């Protein structure tokens, strides 16, 4: 298998897309799959499609495909909802596994919604749980026997810094804590062995490196030997052992399917299923190797061409994911100027320009071309024209 | 405006679809809208589409359209997630408004997932809350000053029996309880004045009478004067006052947007937005009038033609929604025989055949034709051939 596989994607002419860490590009088959689901399945089969088109099983089928990309066994991954909701499910289940402990340990670099969901759950429970968020490098030291659950995002959304999954999971377990990994910036980006890590839970989203499209469903992994011990707080009918028995009492499914909640988003799941076919025959070790080659090249080129930019990502390959961030006091304006010229990355406060590297559709020539544009913007002060435009709501 | 408006929908040849109360039919514009979102917005604009294609505002825009169909003011309805999750949000917020009370009152006819979500929330909180489920006709009597929240589905998914929204809401408020209405079988089916009811919360789904497609997003209404008092337990970043400030601390949005959670399902929301255009110029009073004419006709025809079927739906028009259920000891097999002949309704245990009436795409001739097929199946015992087929997972 050769990388990149640009022929599998629709990439606009004139665009170098270094934002696959935010929203992946469009796989070529997605539109046809959506049309099929809408016209043939929904339109033609109507309610019967829940059986005849396999809609009922789709969350599990898609979950199995994701499992294969994160080092998880079949049947251990459920899909649906948003990542925020999946974070809540994992946290809720984890706290119930450690009823004598009150601390949720995360870090200050976690993506805000993970912290917000923890805060919301703490308020809902109302028993004085505490969320602690030390700096990322201080997490291991902060793991004590007060900690019920350690919840971390594996790759930092701002800097690309990657936690040591195995070491932190071991430290959590040594202290008797449950481990939750958020793989938002890892799934499809780095080689993962979530089962090997022994972590109890992992969650992630599919619209970044997995190219599932805007608002694509999230996923949750539960370590298979623990599923009986997981008490779903979001106890929806699709997670029931027999949804169509219409029992008045909740009985969770015997498998990871208990992490399903409501009626699955069939249209988005179908497009995601199609998007995942681009991974057929792809070795995640080859992706990781190409990703590091691309990001190393980017770092070297930017540092040679743009000395005023400060690398905010760890230089050590094993300590970073598949994105590179550079700081600039006018990073927002510089990024706008880049986007205006077809080089699409994004910006995160206070001053970080983020560039994601997706070896399925980015190659060395793209990297070099992008750095040439960046160099030109900085040398000519072209970013000043973009400086005073309104702040984009999403970048 | 004339009813029906069959020209706005794709309905398969040879099908009389009396299951719009489960999954609405395909509006003609849906496939083109999906193609546009996928190819032009996602494929062409990529991450920029969050602003340039209006993705960020889509949950609110769609919520406003739904608001107009349920008698709610603009800005009072948020969309996204599944109905199960929206039930949880409403229950969680309601319990926080009545911290001194421990009872959630529902009824034995509520859709199971509503009861399950209550059970799950009770387990997560872990403070001894109780779910009570009297028979539907005994709900008002069961409202006491122990009750924190009354949570009911307005129209019963099995029988079509409709609760008196105003009377029950008044009774709940008289006892100091918070009122939550589940409008799953009401929105787009009956005329609603949710604001006039003074209920604190309403939730609903959009894949039934609103034709949003399989897994279309749910909605939640919050009475506008109460929004400041709503503390979201599912405190996702999209409900934050400033999602892209990336604050470590959660601050809810000042509006109903605080009921948003994670990244919205743009593809499903866009198709739903398109689906809702079929309601342009439609008067819900006219829909209700046509719905009752169709269901009255159906009841009369079935009772004349099929005396062995027992009406399970209230005969009194003001006491039912837009579906009619008949009981038969072999209802499952009879329904299979109907479906085999192109008359699509569905079955709910233990013995109910459900038929939904959707005046946008069903007319009197459809009703009469459907009852002719039903009569023939019963007179010829044609259902016996379907009796021993496997039980469908979804009907």
From TrEMBL, chains A, B:
Domain of life: Bacteria
Gene (UniProt): kynU
The organism's taxonomic lineage, starting at the top: Bacteria, Pseudomonadati, Pseudomonadota, Alphaproteobacteria, Rhodobacterales
Cofactors demanded by this protein: pyridoxal 5'-phosphate
Protein name: Kynureninase
Pathway involvement of the protein, from the record: Amino-acid degradation; L-kynurenine degradation; L-alanine and anthranilate from L-kynurenine: step 1/1; Cofactor biosynthesis; NAD(+) biosynthesis; quinolinate from L-kynurenine: step 2/3
Top EC group: hydrolase
A Pfam short name: KYNU_C
Family under the similarity heading: Belongs to the kynureninase family.
Assembly notes: Homodimer.
GO biological process, one term: L-tryptophan catabolic process to kynurenine
Alphabetical list of InterPro entries matching this protein: DegT/StrS_aminotransferase, Kynureninase, PyrdxlP-dep_Trfase, PyrdxlP-dep_Trfase_major, PyrdxlP-dep_Trfase_small
Keyword match Hydrolase: yes
Enzyme Commission number(s) from the entry: 3.7.1.3
Entry annotated with the keyword Transferase: no
GO MF annotations, alphabetized: kynureninase activity; pyridoxal phosphate binding
GO cellular component: cytoplasm
Function: Catalyzes the cleavage of L-kynurenine (L-Kyn) and L-3-hydroxykynurenine (L-3OHKyn) into anthranilic acid (AA) and 3-hydroxyanthranilic acid (3-OHAA), respectively.
Keywords: Hydrolase, Pyridine nucleotide biosynthesis, Pyridoxal phosphate
Catalytic activity from the UniProt record: 3-hydroxy-L-kynurenine + H2O = 3-hydroxyanthranilate + L-alanine + H(+); L-kynurenine + H2O = anthranilate + L-alanine + H(+)
């Amino acid at each position: 298998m050769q990388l990149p596989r640009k022929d599998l994607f629709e990439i606009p002419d004139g665009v170098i897309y270094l934002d696959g860490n935010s929203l992946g590009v469009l796989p070529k088959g997605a539109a046809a799959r959506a049309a099929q689901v809408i016209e043939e399945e929904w339109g033609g089969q109507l309610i019967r499609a829940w059986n005849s088109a396999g809609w009922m099983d789709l969350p599990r089928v898609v979950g199995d495909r994701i499992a294969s990309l994160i080092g998880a066994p079949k049947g251990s991954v459920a899909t649906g909802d948003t990542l925020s909701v999946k974070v809540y499910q994992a946290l809720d289940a984890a706290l119930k596994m450690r009823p004598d402990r009150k601390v949720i340990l995360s870090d200050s670099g976690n993506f805000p919604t993970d912290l917000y969901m923890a805060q919301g759950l703490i308020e809902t429970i109302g028993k004085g749980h505490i969320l602690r968020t030390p700096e990322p490098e201080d997490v291991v030291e902060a793991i004590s026997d007060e900690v019920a659950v350690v919840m971390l995002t594996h790759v930092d959304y701002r800097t690309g810094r990657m936690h040591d999954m195995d070491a932190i999971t071991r430290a959590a377990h040594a202290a008797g804590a449950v481990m939750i990994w958020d793989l938002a910036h890892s799934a499809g980006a780095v080689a993962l062995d979530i089962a090997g890590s022994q972590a109890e839970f992992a969650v992630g989203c599919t619209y970044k490196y997995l190219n599932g499209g805007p608002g694509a469903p999230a996923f949750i992994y539960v370590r298979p030997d623990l599923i009986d011990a997981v008490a779903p707080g979001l106890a929806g009918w699709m997670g029931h052992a027999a949804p169509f028995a219409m029992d008045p009492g909740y009985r969770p499914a015997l498998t990871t399917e208990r992490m399903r909640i409501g009626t699955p988003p069939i249209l988005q799941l179908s497009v995601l299923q199609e998007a995942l076919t681009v991974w057929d025959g792809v070795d995640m070790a080859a992706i990781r190797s190409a990703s590091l080659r691309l990001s190393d090249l980017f770092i070297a080129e930017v540092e040679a061409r743009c000395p005023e930019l400060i690398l905010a990502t760890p230089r050590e390959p094993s300590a970073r994911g598949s994105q590179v961030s550079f700081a600039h006091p006018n990073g927002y304006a510089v990024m706008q100027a880049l986007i205006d010229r077809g080089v699409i990355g994004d910006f995160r406060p206070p001053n970080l320009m983020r560039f994601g590297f997706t070896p399925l559709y980015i190659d060395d020539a793209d990297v070099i071309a992008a750095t040439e544009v960046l160099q030109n913007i900085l040398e000519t002060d072209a970013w000043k024209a973009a400086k005073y435009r309104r702040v984009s709501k999403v970048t």
